[in-house]
Write a structure and sequence with these properties.
By secondary structure, the chain is α+β, with helices and mostly antiparallel strands. The protein is built from four helices and five strands, in the order βααααββββ. The longest helix has 15 residues.
């Protein structure tokens, strides 16, 4: 992906203070996409077959947790990173799948900034620690991702 032109960037490190919360959109889990993802990347029976899922702790076809992470990333990129001076990420501290996600669920992503500091090794870059919290249509949290992002600083 090419770097966004300077005039399209809305968010630099200075615009991402600790405590800031941003809603990053919603999507509905498509059954066919969930099956395709599972077949390709997480072919466990409860992600591939209604019959196998009925015998599992999920009781019905569930979406791969990795698919849930991918959907969260898509919302993050489309509704925030494309307008940010993002320089990538050095990693994720934790991922927690808190509740199963099922085809047909509508998921909403929230970003909460929990830490922010300039990088010692790169004074032109700020490091931001973010909790991505995804909720289903019942308001139940289904995902927590805790990770870092690097953002260009103004000036």
């Amino acid at each position: 992906m090419s770097e966004a032109p300077q005039n399209r960037i809305k968010y630099f490190w200075e615009d991402l203070p600790v405590g800031a919360v941003r809603e990053l959109g919603s999507l509905t889990v498509d059954r066919n996409e969930a099956l395709e993802f599972a077949q390709k990347y997480d072919p466990q029976p409860f992600h591939l077959s209604e019959a196998a899922a009925a015998q599992s702790i999920f009781g019905r076809l569930s979406t791969s947790g990795w698919h849930t992470c991918s959907m969260a990333m898509g919302l993050l990129v489309r509704n925030f990173l494309c307008e940010a001076a993002s320089l990538g990420s050095p990693g994720v501290e934790q991922i927690k799948w808190l509740k199963p996600v099922y085809p047909g669920d509508t998921l909403t992503l929230r970003q909460r900034i929990v830490e922010s500091r300039p990088m010692k090794s790169r004074p032109d870059v700020g490091l931001v620690r973010t909790h991505w919290e995804m909720f289903n249509q019942h308001g139940e949290q289904v995902l927590l991702m805790d990770g870092y992002g690097m953002f260009r600083r103004r000036g």
